[in-house]
Design a protein that fits this description.
Blueprint (H helix, E strand, L loop, with lengths): L1 E2 L19 H4 L3 E2 L24 H8 L17 H5 L10 E6 L4 H5 L8 E6 L3 E6 L5 E4 L17 H16 L9 H7 L14
Antiparallel strand pairs: 1-2, 3-4, 4-5, 5-6
Length: 205
Amino acid sequence: MLTSDHGDYLGDHWLGEKEMFHEPSVRIPMIVVDPRREADSTRGSRSEQLVEAIDLVPTFVDAAGGDSRALDHVLEGRSLLPLVSGSKVEPWRRYAFSEADYAWRPARKELGLAPDEARAFMVTDGRWKSVHYQHHRPQLFDLATAPQELTDLAGESCHAETLERLEKALQDWALERRHRITVSNQRVSEATGSAHKRGYLFGVW
């Protein structure tokens, strides 16, 4: 697998490095070569599915013979092997997300923000992209009609429904982060409501 950490502007948007959520920064290469016969049907093809860097670990786990689904309480990504093998995967991912912490940047001081307030988030469905900086209104860009991301459409009422949908997706994503990493979902399911059976008595006398 060939991929990278992030893109660099290299002059795009008159910027260098990364830091923000324009396409030159958030889009990264990902080339997967699977030598197995199961991948012959997709060999040399290009997928338009939304893929995130967090998909790497579950992909490696499955490629090594493990079961990434058994780690669903830890891993937030999805194995790419079904895509590589051409298996029908429904539903796949409807949105892709990115986040940034600019607490170390002088911009935080210019904005009068505390270090824990300098966070930013991005959500895209492949065409529409919403960028959300804490304490600022969200931005909305149409990558199909304005790929340079120079026109913020968030203030236009005709795009209110699109912006609301993306903001809801961002909220749902934030609520679904993995926090119970020491006990598997299966173990929790098996043990739910069984305290008395296991000899733990609460409020009984």
